[in-house]
Amino acid sequence: MTICCIDDVLFVAAGTFFANLSLI
Fold it and tell me: Which domain of life is it from (predicted)?
């Protein structure tokens, strides 16, 4: 459960990070 939650958080964080890079 914790691993799943961590994966979800990392996935969202990575998605927002690359999204910001693409905007810049």
Answer: Bacteria
What would the two tokens of residue 15 be?
Answer: 């998605």
CA-CA distances (angstroms) from residue 3 to 8, 10, 22? 9, 10, 28
pLDDT tens, residue order, the chain (24 aa):
566 667 788 888 998 998 888 876
Per residue in 2-23, is it b (16+ CB within 10 Å) or e — as a string? eeeeeeeeeeeeeeeeeeeeee
Does the pTM surpass 0.85? The reply is: no
| Rg of the chain over all Cα atoms, to the nearest angstrom | 11
